[in-house]
Amino acid sequence: MTETKNNNGLKVLAGLLGVVLLGTIIYTVSLYQDKKKTATALTQEKQLVVEDLNSLKSEYDKAILESNVTNEELVTARDNIAKYIDSVKTMKSDISSLSRYRRQVGVLKAEREQLIKQVDSLKQSNTMIAMQRDSTYVELEKQTVFNDSLVVQNTQLADVVEKGAAMNITTFTVDAVKERNSGKLVSTSRASRTDKLKICFTVGNNVIAEAGDREFYLEVLDPQGNVLGESYSKTNDAGASVTYSKGTNFYFENKALDVCDYINKPSGDFQTGNYMVNIYNDRLNLLGNVQFTLK
Q1: Where in the chain does DSSP place strands (E)?
Q2: Please, what are the averages of pLDDT over each run of 10 residues along the chain (295 residues)?
Q3: For residues 198 and 179, is the Cβ–Cβ distance under 8 A?
Q4: Which bin fits 173, alpha (ψ -120 to 50), beta or left (φ > 0)?
Q5: Whole-structure pTM over 0.85, yes or no?
Q6: Which residue of 27, 75, 194, 216 could cross-link 176, Cys pair, CB 3.0 to 4.6 Å?
């Protein structure tokens, strides 16, 4: 009877131990599964944080590439995010660390928005400056073309004025003359009777030319092409030169003026043959010429 009771007690105790063991096993399994789920959730959360950070970094890379000038703030922010990515990848996952990084991601997003606004504002300013610069360049080009046009017009006007101010002769005559004892001069065509050459010309009216003392140059060439007279030499600003017989001075008052001068007999008599007389202004421009013959 007593043995039967003992067996029943052992069975009850074994049953209780079985229940306890089963509960422990169930609890352990449940705890393991919860831990596994938590680890998986933390890994996923960690991956999300890394993805958010990589997305931010990519946006900074794009903003830096699109920026016309290097923006140190963007570069610094991008480099900081790269450091955060490395930290998250190597850290031991736990709720508090991930929560801190999730909050930091929010801060970084807000910072990115602010920096992007600044960059956009800077780009707009640069675009406006570029437009103003281009506009200024266009205006300068227009002004340069206008100035060049004025220079051309002024040069043309100066040429016109210069040409208009140049004095010309309207008549030009040469007479071989003999001087009588009374002082009267009579024309002759014979070389042996010629005492001097009378050269006369008329300066035309010119209201543009400046009034004042002027000098024209007479060049008389004998039949051999030699210059009669003192053979003076004159060179202009362009380097051209003329050897002339005599300079004739007169005062010009913008009105037509008759001028006469004489070339005296050379050391010997005048030779027979063809003569040439040229007249030049003070710039050595040829104003006219006359040919005549002495017999």
Answers
A1: 169-179, 185-187, 196-203, 212-221, 232-235, 241-244, 246-252, 257-264, 273-280, 286-294
A2: 60 64 62 57 64 71 64 72 70 61 66 68 67 76 74 58 66 89 86 90 84 90 87 85 90 89 81 92 89 91
A3: no
A4: beta
A5: no
A6: 194
